[in-house]
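Please decode residue identities from the backbone states below.
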């Protein structure tokens, strides 16, 4: 393993910082006592965890690729499997009013503040098998090791694993339905959001025998006083760990995000008869808007000349961290010989600086309206989702850094590197849970930094490292 400088401009969100703090010597002592890979529970933390990830990766609503959206039939089947695995690890399980699956062990002191460990069980369309699932499976595996050693009851605080029902927001275009409800920040209006077929969040829950009402949603909020903190382990979804050759990292913070839906309406007509000069073509307008977005997000300084509350820090932060994507576009009536009447597209916009992100949304909206006026088409911009950037808790991060160091040390013997610290450009349930309690995250290396793709891959030994790190973290609660 080699440490090396990563050029900041190379990876927008991978501004990793190597923490200079000295790692506690007690971890070296543990490593010497237990240092051989044989003693590291590879059958549970690696072999079984990898087998479970593969099994879960086959639970899909689609044939030939992985797709599991909020409360879909495959999500329900995935929940049944995960529940069995939670119970196999000695956890008491239940499903809540938003379809989140919980597995809890009380430890020695039922009234102590609980440690929550979670990630999501939904996926994007044509997904990889590790995004979300790795965090759930690793947590269950680490607890299963404690159970098999007869130590589960020795935890000094309750530990609860939560498999959240929705983080990707694919079905309802509103992320964190599950974790936001637990944190008490999901508005009751979320129950009335509909998917493309007109089915609402409430309908889909009712259809799965979950009686959700506005009251039961409000009651889902955990009492902050009952929670000690939240930990999430997730694949990096970027290339830095592979680049520097280290399996684990601590997450310093998570970029804020905004999702928009832009609807452009023009004049539907015959492709052969309407002269170019007389068209009000929403498709051509949408194309111009998308190129505008690309330019703004590549060169924010050029567009934000009058940037309200922005200062130099904001502009610099936007220059290195702003990323924008149009991932979905649909047209009506969508035929080759018809000038469309309507085009709708999504915008996903992320930045570390919340003031800067707000300024970009404002500028983008102004420019969109100007272009639509010039082209005599109408534009509607709907703000579908907002999540502010989150900074992970320092104390929790230091503990996770120690746990990651211990894991790598236990697996590889003497190491001289420090555990890298990364920013996350991807969103995580930790963002929603940060409204409830302090959060900390670990990242796990993935091949080529690829995610949201069937090419997503994590080495079996890195799954193992993840499990050992969580186990070591749990042991610090004994
Ligand atoms: C979740 O994967 C996101 O960042 O979109
Ligand atoms: Mn994802
Ligand atoms: Mn994820």
């Amino acid at each position: 393993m080699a440490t090396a400088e990563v050029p900041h401009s190379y990876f927008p969100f991978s501004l990793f910082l190597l923490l200079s703090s000295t790692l506690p010597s007690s971890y070296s002592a543990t490593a010497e006592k237990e240092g051989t890979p044989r003693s590291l529970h590879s059958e549970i933390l690696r072999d079984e965890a990898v087998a479970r990830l593969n099994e879960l990766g086959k639970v899909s609503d689609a044939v030939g690729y992985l797709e599991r959206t909020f409360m879909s039939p495959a999500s329900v089947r995935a929940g049944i499997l995960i529940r069995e695995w939670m119970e196999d690890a000695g956890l008491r399980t239940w499903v809540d009013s938003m379809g989140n699956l919980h597995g809890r062990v009380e430890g020695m002191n039922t009234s102590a503040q609980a440690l929550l460990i979670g990630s999501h069980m939904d996926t994007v369309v044509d997904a990889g098998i590790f995004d979300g699932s790795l965090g759930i499976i690793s947590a269950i595996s680490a607890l299963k090791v404690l159970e098999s050693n007869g130590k589960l009851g020795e935890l000094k605080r309750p530990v609860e694993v939560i498999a959240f029902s929705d983080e990707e927001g694919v079905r309802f275009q509103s992320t964190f339905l599950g974790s936001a409800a637990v944190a008490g920040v999901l508005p009751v209006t979320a129950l009335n959001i509909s998917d493309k077929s007109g089915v609402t969040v409430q309908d889909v829950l009712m259809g799965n025998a979950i009686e959700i009402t506005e009251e039961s949603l409000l009651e889902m909020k955990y009492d902050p006083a009952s929670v000690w903190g939240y930990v999430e382990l997730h694949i990096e979804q970027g290339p830095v760990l592979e680049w520097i050759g280290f399996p684990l990292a601590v997450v310093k913070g998570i970029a804020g995000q905004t999702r928009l839906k832009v609807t452009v309406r023009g004049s539907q007509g015959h492709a052969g008869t309407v002269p170019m000069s007389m068209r009000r073509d929403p498709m051509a307008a949408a194309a111009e808007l998308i190129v505008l977005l690309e330019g703004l997000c590549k060169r924010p300084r050029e567009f934000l000349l009058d940037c309200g509350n922005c200062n130099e820090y904001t502009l610099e932060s936007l220059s290195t961290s702003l990323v924008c994507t149009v991932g979905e576009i649909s047209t009506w009536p969508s035929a080759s010989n018809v000038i469309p009447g309507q085009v709708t597209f999504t915008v996903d916009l992320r930045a570390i600086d919340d003031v800067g992100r707000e300024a970009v949304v404002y500028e983008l909206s102004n420019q969109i309206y100007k272009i639509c006026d010039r082209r005599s088409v109408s534009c509607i911009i709907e703000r579908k989702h907002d999540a502010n950037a989150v900074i992970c808790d320092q104390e929790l991060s230091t503990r996770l850094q120690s746990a990651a160091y211990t894991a790598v040390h236990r697996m590889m013997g003497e190491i001289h590197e420090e555990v890298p610290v990364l920013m996350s450009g991807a969103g995580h349930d930790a963002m929603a849970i940060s409204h409830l309690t302090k959060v900390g995250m670990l990242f796990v290396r993935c091949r080529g930094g690829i995610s949201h793709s069937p090419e997503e891959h994590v080495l079996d030994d890195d799954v193992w490292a993840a499990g050992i790190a969580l186990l070591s973290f749990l042991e610090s609660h004994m």
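Observation: The pocket of manganese (II) ion (ligand 2) is lined by residues 124, 131, 168, 452 (CB under 6 Å).
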